[in-house]
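In response to reviewer comment 3 from the previous cycle, which asked for concrete evidence that the modeling workflow produces usable outputs, we include below a single protein chain processed end to end. The sequence was submitted unchanged, and the resulting structure tokens are shown without manual editing.
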Amino acid sequence: TISKIAAGEVVQRPSSALKELLENSIDALSTSVHVKIKEGGLKFMQLHDNGTGIHIEDYPILCKRFTTSKISHYSDLQKLTTFGFRGEALSSISQVSKLTVISRKEGESIGYKASFSGGEMVEEAHPYALDRGTILQIEDMFSNMPGRLRALSSSEEHKRCLEVVAKYSIHFPGVMMKVGAKNVEFFSSGKADRLEVIRLFLKNMKVQEELIELEEHASEFVNFSGIVSSPFYSHKTSHLILFINNRLVEAPELTKLVSNLYSAYLPKNSCYFVYLSLNLPPVHIDVNVHPTKSQVKFIHQSKIFCEIQTVIQEALQNSNSKRSYNVKVISHSTQYKPKDIKSQVRESPRDTKLEWYLAPVEQTQPKQMQEDLSSIQELKQEITFGSEQTILQNSVLIGCIDKERILIQHETSSYIVLVPLLFQEMNYQYILELFGELPYSEIPNSNLRIEELLEMSLELDHVERDTSIPKDKLIAKLTELLSNKAELLDDYFSVTIEEGILKKVPILANGYVSPDIKNLPEFLLKLALQVNWRNEKQCLEAVSRHLAWFYSFVPDSW
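The workflow returned the following structure tokens.
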């Protein structure tokens, strides 16, 4: 009874047993793992690997509780490099199911088969023809625990088992993993890269376009790398896959942190994908804190989580969408006179255009430029041949979901479009279309000093700066940089800086859009810090996008 109670903690469901078997296979240096499942693993589960195998002399004690070859002293836990260490997995599985083990040790001429139940070998092991490796068969799981069996759903357990295999396949892309026999439900060749395995896991052929690889991050506390979804990722379920020292674990605190982080970039109820691999010194981590080893404790946890948050946040902020939109820019003659207010009743969307209701603003048109920079033409071509061009050109508006999202239909598919990002992209294309010819508006009696605006931007809560440079010197350096680039900003973008004062700003969409002036300090900071002024194409694209960003934040009263 005691053994059965303990087994119920270690093997809580079929996916728990499968996780233990997968880890044993990887510990045995397997390069190929084949899994078969029936009724979610409750009726039948089989794992076949090509690992180092089990010696015939170990069969009698194979399912004895606390039998392990991974450690010999308690102190070995502090230098653990394997998954297993307690010797409870096979013992627990045999307590709640019928277990059959077939294995051929590397170097031996033949394999052996034996059955186990209740932690004991039912019959003597007998020879069995098998290539190198091990086959573990589990039948009638929880048949002796009817309460547990009734609480589990075969369909849900089947899904969980597939998810466990997929997660280990993502972390170990060099190991071939297959689920299913005639109907293969998951297959990773062992030769694919991690991004390809993630695509298989998410069942999304184009998901790689929306994933960001995190570069290896090393600090005094942790080394980690990972892959995270961009703000444009769309999926029905959020996934946080966390491996610490190659061990799949759960971290509720990190899950909450990541969810809060993405909430600033994604619409409400949207989902994300995050895969992280952390490497810590074995002496800093305690793996023996949970029956299923699904949770661990380690020192400097809060500092490590802060580092992870910072790296992911920077990746999201720096990610540039590859999506392109073909947006028709509203054109309007400044000589237009609106109709009498009494007649401005539109009974049908075909009666007249939307700009019929808009009043033009007074603006100054700059001198026409003769030069046609090749970089601008390249940027325009990237828009014209963008992957999303066909969708937006031939889509139908279904309706508004909320203030920030609309729903469109293209052929038989529906898409959620984020309005702020679409608005920002429209502004970007407008700037490229009128590059060097943007109309502008003079700021009367302007006292907007660049130096003071930059100082305000550095006071923003979400702005981080290099504290090794004194604040006043940094502001002076950035002010000098923008002053030196004043001619370029004026000629190409109608942003005029004279004697350190902002005098003119461009007008987008014929003045129908006014930016929120509160974002002006951050806009100037972006120009100073996030533009590669030495590369023509990168420079013009970055300035255009920052300007589009500034004009996409309209006042609340708009």
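Residues 154-171 form the longest helix (18 residues). We consider this sufficient to address the reviewer's concern, and the full set will be provided in the supplementary archive.
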